[in-house]
Design goal:
By secondary structure, this protein is of the alpha+beta class. The protein has a single domain, classed as Thiol Ester Dehydrase, Chain A (Roll), CATH 3.10.129.10. The protein contains three helices and eight strands; from the N terminus they run βααββαβββββ. The chain has a six-stranded antiparallel beta sheet. The protein has a two-stranded parallel sheet with strand order 1-8. The longest helix is centred in the middle third of the chain and has 16 residues. The chain is elongated and about 50 Å long.
Length: 155
């Protein structure tokens, strides 16, 4: 007796994010926290630890990329359609100091049935933009939470 559950798009995004985060060992290991989620958007934070510093005593760019990529992943999976990165690029705009608190804000720019484009702005605790990331997504088979759908808005 399987009953299809229908929620608002915001409720679907939140349920998917909670399920994803429970499985997301990388985000957990790096100390990321999901601050807000909605259809096509996500905001995450991450504290830069000593283990993330490179030989210049600044945050290694790979950690900044992984952080931005994770916010991108939550934004594009918020519809409960399994979605993966098709490609991504990042511009590092300023060095990230030890113990910085970073915020990644991911926003959908375009979405079709199988592809999407998302921009992620990474800022430090002073609101300075430290990196700009653009990711393109590809929808694959399946759902994070099988059978969970969003109510269609009435016109």
């Amino acid at each position: 007796m399987s009953e299809k559950t229908e929620l608002t798009p915001e409720e679907v995004a939140k349920a998917v994010a909670q399920t994803m985060f429970g499985k997301d060992k990388a985000a957990q290991h790096m100390g990321m926290a999901l601050k807000s989620i909605g259809p096509g958007k996500a905001v995450m934070t991450m504290r830069v630890t000593d283990e993330m510093l490179n030989g210049h005593n600044i945050c290694h760019g790979g950690y900044v990329f992984t952080f931005a990529d994770t916010a991108f992943a939550y934004a594009c999976n918020a519809y409960n359609q399994n979605t993966v990165a098709q490609g991504a690029q990042i511009d590092f705009l300023r060095p990230v100091a030890p113990d910085s608190l970073l915020t990644a804000t991911a926003e959908e720019r375009s979405r079709s049935r199988q592809t999407g484009v998302y921009d992620v702005t990474v800022t430090d605790q002073d609101g300075r933009v430290v990196a700009l990331f653009r990711g393109s997504s590809h929808t694959i088979k399946g759902q994070m939470i099988p059978g969970l759908t969003a109510k269609q808005e009435e016109e």
